Amino acid sequence: MGEEEPNTSSANSTLEELSFEKQSSLEKQPSNLDEPTKQPTNQPLYPETDLSQGIIGWEGQDDPENPQNFPDSKKWILLGLISAFTLVSPLASSMFSPAVVYMGEQFGETNEIILALSVSIYLIGYTFGPLFLAPLSEIYGRRVVLSVANWFFVVWQIGCALSKNIETLIVCRLFAGIGGSACITLGAGVVADLFHERLVEKRLRFGEVSWQWIFWLLLIVGGAMQLGIEVFNKETYAPVIIKWKVAKMAKELGRTDLESVYDVGKEKLSPGQVLKRSLLRPALLLVKSPIVAFLCIYMSFVYGLLYLFFTTISDVFTSTYGFSVGLSGLAYLGIGLGFACGLFIMAITNDKIVSKMTANNGGKFEPEMRMPTMIIFACIIPISFFWYGWTADKHVFWIVPIIGMFPFGVGMMGVFIPIQTYVIDCYPAYAASANAALTATRSLVGALLPLAGTPMFDSLGLGWGNSLLGFIALVFVPVPIIFVKYGKTIREKWPINL
Q1: Nearest-CA neighbor of 217 among 345, 134, 99, 319?
Q2: Region class of 362: left (phi > 0), else alpha (psi between -120 and 50), else beta
Q3: DSSP 3-state assignment of 6?
Q4: pTM over 0.85, yes/no
Q5: Residue-wise DSSP of 449-485
Q6: Rounded mean pLDDT of the chain?
Q7: Whose CB has fewer CB within 10 Å in the chain, the N or C terminal residue?
Q8: 71-233+279-493 architecture in CATH?
Q9: For residue range 284-304, what is the model confidence (pLDDT) as tens digits?
Q10: What DSSP string runs through 379-390?
Q11: Domain spans of the chain, in order of start
Q12: How big is the CA angle at 348 (ends 343 and 351), to the nearest 5 degrees?
């Protein structure tokens, strides 16, 4: 096995050189795997098998085993199911918040930090899970890692629902978070697997039921979603598919010289060495790629603001507006609808804007074309803190602070989606690991920052506490402008070749 799989176009270039200029021309392979190889349009997009050179690749450009040649219906069913599970998993982190009071009464726990930890510990799982799930998927394939992790998430909901003390609940929530991080982390990898990187065109109310039913519901919904994924899912990571193919053909043909096209010209490493390097890859991306590090910091900041929001919502609507704990869950509708609206706006505008910018750039696509819309959405985010904070502080009619959360939801989606698609476009060969770095850093901030939320709001009050967050968000508004203006320069100055 090789140290890392090159992107598709680099592999194509290597294969062409092998076919016509012999093995010595491997030295001509480009050193920056993240920059697309410039090649004529009549050259193959996917690397093919050349038995005369002992190289195993795809059986033609239309090979049905190539995930990028899967029927569109199969691609969208699989992505739809993974997306549905991706909605369930983050929901598990926050939908427990309104029921924490009930749980605390039952377990006799009054410490606000411990109660907050029972919610945020799930995100600690989100921090550690991606660091090994993503690289494992790049060694053993997406399907087996995603399947095991999703079922791991589902099973730990039973432990949460049957917990007899808060310590057990916290531990079960931690493990559930580790499993639940897989769909968040590997979803980007599946997108990169199924769609060629340069084809750019293409909360709940619980009346009077017990808090345990939150976890039973997650068990039912999560289990149903994963059953669907099991039926429709198939391995999508090309280097792993070709590795299996090499083993099969070597046995059938009795040849020991066969090699995967994705391993050509690379250092031969033992499985242990490959695993070690793969496990370190998300951290190395943070260290070696300033653009990944900057994006992680900015995304973590926005994510931390979200969970600081969550620390006050349930208490505000129960103590200030007289909602029951169950009914207080409806207060999350404002931010939830904002998420939906932001997602819809990005879905109908993102690719259109990128396509137009590509056309204006002589048909050359650049990942930084994902970034300009972030400037608008970053300006929307601070609105919610002043609106929600002061209307709740002055006891304005309850619907007004709920509506005040809406802009934040819109802005957050408008920031998150471009960042995630950007790292896929920049580093297609490391898509899962880059996304793991994003998920781990933002989850750590989202887990720890809310622990300081209650003391902060107790000291400053809702109005000034939220205004402080709003002013900080305003300071960060120019950050996307920096990404747009200097992103390409930073990316090209520090290329990644792990």
Answers
A1: 99
A2: left
A3: coil
A4: no
A5: GGGGHHHHHHHHHHHHHHHHHHHHHHHTTTHHHHHHH
A6: 79
A7: C
A8: Up-down Bundle (1.20)
A9: 888 888 888 889 999 999 988
A10: HHHHHHHHHHHH
A11: 8-66+237-268, 71-233+279-493
A12: 105
- Provide long-range contacts, Cβ within 8 A and 24+ apart, for 108-114: 109/166, 112/454, 113/451, 113/454, 114/166
Nearest by Cα to 93 from 123, 113, 125: 123
**Token pair 């990005």: residue:** 346
Q: What is the DSSP string of 22-73?
A: -GGGGGGS-S-TTSPPP--TTS-SS-B-BGGGTEE-BSSTT-TTSGGGS-HH
354: its two tokens? 């990128």
Express each pLDDT in 375-425 by its tens digit: 999 999 999 999 999 999 999 999 999 999 999 999 999 999 899 888 888
Q: How far apart are the first and last CA of the chain?
A: 14
Mean pLDDT over 233-253 rounds to 84
Cα–Cα distance, 439 to 467 (Å, whole number): 27
Tokens 């982390």 belong to which residue?
A: 185
pLDDT in tens, 186-227: 877 787 788 764 444 443 333 354 556 566 666 676 677 677
